[in-house]
Design brief:
Length: 143
């Protein structure tokens, strides 16, 4: 990770790290990058997984709140299922405008999960180099 990228994520994750725990190494990345159809990169903040490349993708559609953003799983899922879900939601963020309290059907991604939909919750926002960024939590509907 370049120094500029590290600074970006340190600033973006500062607020959630205060409440959920410190950012932890390593970053989980695929052999094929997300922009080429592979899984999204993610890391841990406290006990939770958070994406760490979506907000820097030029293709990402700004959220309904006008933010470039990352996704933090607040779900009781293992690493593999979490990676699959965050990758699917990340891909959706490249094509659709998502935002606070939006609900997404994920039954096609995690058919064995005890929930069939998730809701996005704006957890934090900040400005980096004059641009608005944020982190949305991903929680099961009704949580």
């Amino acid at each position: 990770m370049s120094p500029a990228t590290r600074e970006h994520y340190t600033a973006l994750f500062a607020e959630i790290a205060e409440s959920l725990g410190a950012e932890r190494e390593p970053t989980f990345t695929g052999m094929i990058g997300f922009s080429a159809g592979g899984p999204v990169s993610m890391r841990r903040v406290g006990e939770w997984y958070v994406t760490c490349e979506l907000s820097m993708c030029a293709e990402q559609v700004e959220s309904a709140e006008g933010l470039k953003f990352e996704l933090l799983s607040l779900l009781d899922l293992g690493e593999r299922d979490c990676h699959r879900l965050l990758t699917a939601l990340g891909a959706l963020s490249m094509a659709e405008c998502l935002g606070d309290l939006h609900t997404v059907d994920v039954s096609h991604v995690l058919s064995a999960a005890p929930f069939s939909a998730v809701q996005l919750q704006l957890l934090s926002r900040c400005k980096i180099a004059g641009r608005a960024y944020g982190v949305y939590g991903v929680a099961p509907v009704g949580a």
